[in-house]
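Loading example: each entry is read as three labelled lines plus one structure line.
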Amino acid sequence: MILAAVPGFQGNQTALNPVGPGAAHIEFEFSLIFWITTAVYCIVLLVLVIAVARKRHSFEAMPEPLTTTPESDRIAKRSVGAAMIATVILLFIMLVGSFETSRALGSMNPENALTIDVYGHQWWWEVQYPNDEAYKTVVTANEIHLPVGVPIRIHGTSRDVIHSFWAPNVQGKRDLMPGYETEIMMQIDQPGAWRGQCAEYCGEQHAHMSFYMVAETKDQFAKWLNDQAQSSVSPSTPETARGQQVFLTHACVLCHTIRGTPAGSRVGPDLTHVASRTTIAAGELPNTVGNLGGWILNAQGIKPGCRMPPNQLSGSELQDLLAYLETLK
Amino acid sequence: MITTSVGCQTELTDAERLQAAQLDRVWQEPAGFIGWFKAVHHTTIGRRYFFTALLFFLLAGLLAGAMRLQLAFPEAHFLSNDKYNQIFTMHGSTMMFLFAVPMMFETFSVYLVPLMVGTRNIAFPRLNAYSYYLYAFGGLMFYIAFVCNTGADRGWFSYVPLAGPDYGPGKRPDFWAQLITFTEVSALAVAVETIVTVFRLRAPGMSLNRIPIFVWGQVVVAFMVIFALPGVVLSSTMLLLDRTCSTQFFNPAVGGDVLLFQHLFWWFGHPEVYLIFIPGTAIVSTIVTTFSRRHVFGYLVLVLAMVATGFMAFGLWVHHMFATGIPQIAESYFTAASMMIAIPTGAQIFCWIATMATGKVVLRTPLWWVIGFFFVFVMGGMTGIFVASVPVDLQVHDTYFVVAHFHYVLIGGAVFPLFGAITYWFPKLTGRMMSEKLGQLSFWLFFVGFNVTFFPMHLVGLRGMPRRVYTYPPNMGWTQLNQIESLGYILLFLSVCILLWNMFKSARSGAIAGPNPWNAGTLEWATTSPPPCYNFLHLPTVNGREAIWDATPNQPVVVGLDEDARSFLTTRTLDAEPDGRDEFPSPSIWPFLAAVATSLAFIGSIFTPWGITIGAIPVAITMIAWFWPKRQPAERRRAREIWQSE
Amino acid sequence: MRAAIPILVLSAALALNGCKREQRVFDPGSSGSQVANGVPLNEVHAGGPVSLSDASKYEGSAYAVGEGKRLYEAYNCVGCHAHGGGAIGPALMDSQWIYGSRPEQIYSDIVQGRPNGMPSYAGKIPDYQVWELVAYVRSMSGQLPSDVAPSRSDEMPVKKAEQAQPKEHPADENPQPVQQGRPQ
């Protein structure tokens, strides 16, 4: 693809850098349409320019209208007829290409796909890895790990308004709608972190609702999944113990879950393993201590209108809390 | 500013001068402040539509400037997220509901269609006035709400549940929903008038196969309006009911369906873009004909293409919903239909090129705009094939690629022809020619500025930038492209300023145009510029497709209609043989008052459901006064006649 | 026709009221973000004086009342008060107010807690969220104008939407002016 040479198209949120069969099939159809339509465009416009250039006259006054007969229009009739036939043929080619691509995408649906549930919230992504044994179910947020080369079924709905789950390097998008359960198949063949973003206007912070799909080896993924299923790390130092107390006695506990503590609210993202994530604020900020502290103190300054209220903590409270949260790997 | 006084009629005999004075007396528009509200002549109302729609275009353009300023820098703080959400919604809603359809369909239908078919006024003139006032009041309401921080902020299509009662607090989506009501009642009225005018009021001899392509285009659009608009009226009314009366149409928890809104909306929404585009093709056909100095090639194909497009437009709507997970057979069908609609449009493109290739091309500003249309619209049509294909659409839907696509087809397919039409028909409207030099300058600035602004959007969308985002992170690779786009806006802004200056200056001091400066073929050029308040001194008859070019040296005119009443001739639909006559109503204040009453009912219902019940009373009163039968003087005379047919 | 003028004026007034109704304050600033700590005994307060008439600012904003509705669920007021009909906690949508129906009184109820089971939210949530909850609670008995009060929720309907709730008349609706520090 020529476009791939343009800087920016090597990125981690672009449809033209496919890392899995979904986006690759789509890129094939995209190229087919691109080359045919570019050629058609150039030819049609060239014919127009030549026609105008050859036939133009620079009269001051408008000349008398020409008389035309069916005879004199014979060539025109034949040309237009030929152009119409060419149009129909080319459209059919692109149509068949589209049907083939749809079929290829539709066939990415084996029984052994790994199912991941995604729930759209204003303005973050709740991610669950369901398991037949309930205690092994993993609940996390905004970061989806998956093994390379394994088909994934993203199964989703929304908890409020319509969102759209879209990781362009991986696959097309699928809307998450309340009252509906939608599915899309994905597979990533290249390890790495591939960024996605909500693609259906969902309110005040639609612009800051992103996520990452992290593709890793099967072993790495198994380890990650196992770690995520564990309960939270108990505080082992006085600082982190104080930090846990800050968490449990302030507003945090009203919205967030940390498994292994009394905090069990489902309003906001699950924080049991918050320190294992590379970003916070739905893919918007790197997960550093500084960013986390700023987010806790005044999320409204970063994402005005988001559901997280400002929290006024004293300096030492904040430090203790951050120390505790940093242990939640 | 622009008067409808009788222009100098050259070479009139004394008898004709008397006749003109008599017609002037009968048809003149009422004067004075109150008189302004009583006007019922189609050129007067058409002018008002034009300037109002142009005003909304400029307002929406300024909103776009604010958006481009905010998006020029990552994480910019020029506009808060709340303000940006209001602004992009206002921009889209204004362009689609208050500019595009009112300008491309209503303005052109109301002003030009009666002139082109050779009659003295549009059918149902008072309804025409009513429709204008309703449109103006709706737009006024929408912008007053915006000024009061109640501008709609849920996108121009206002999906539920985001616009619904739970997630859209306050009254913003309600004003959006009522804007729909205002503008759609207005459009429906004009659609009915257009169809009746074209089917029953044509000049004798203008059989169906001699109707100008422009008029065919407006008829097709009028029929589309009648079938498409109920979808959006339903969805916006259901939204309003959900929000004010606790109905459950879109509440998934009790069996309502959020996709119902999308289906109803897009059932309208897709034909809507063809409501905007088909008049553009109608204008292109007209300008290509005049500036190629020959009958257009492929009249039948062009007309059938517009009709086919009109029908097929109703079978495509789900392509706006490809990402919702529809069954594969539906995907296939709507992809096929969306691609196939390119066939009639392609036919039109080829016929126009054939016309120019076999004619004598005179390159003036109107034709430059048409050439710009080809470059821009065809590009938009090509990207339309991308989005018609489901797999590709799943990548580019709701990204800037789609924003680029629809601006290419809408600006290319409507605004370029519109600016060409303004240049082309300005002489008819004002009696003066626009400046050719300024016209070329504004064309090139617009063409370059448009491409600089909108072409990079294809790229930035493919690089992952979604739509409707008030800002974006700094290291996504989107910053430079956004800055280029924002710079392009400056060129567009300058170009429109020059166009406006050209219009303003030319209206005062442009070269005098005369009745037919372009030596064109359609009937509006067979009268003075601007047309007198009775349109034609002698109602014409028609001998061919281009009425003026195909007229015989002794082309007969219509005689025998009452000249001391607002008489008009009705003709048969197929072959335009005369079959009756009737009388247009005189100027009346009741359409204005009825529009005020209707507006109050609509606006009141935003705040309380009782608004409709109580508001219905003044509406009923004004409408009763409007329709109160008056015996026309001519009726009595005609009752004594004996009608003879061959 | 004559009626058109007052209706026009009313509509204009309603529209102009939009400036207040549609106000969306996302970042309440340092004083609003102060953790709620009970009715201040004086007006000296870090971040600037706190006005007890903050209530009207929140009660006039549809967004704030909508936020209050969201918080009512998020902070589990529903658990004891249901959706206003009351369960183990008293009903909030009627005209009976044990501790008074005025916004400041409801604010104190939430922040201080009350006997027989109302927990205290002091030190837990920011001030502005308490005011949002207060505004929502008052809307449940129809005290707020219908263009500001929330309309139906996207859940199973269990009661009329707050905007359709007929206005209840609590006993202390027209109170005598209160002097701070003195018992009524």
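Residues 12-56+71-106 of chain A form one domain.
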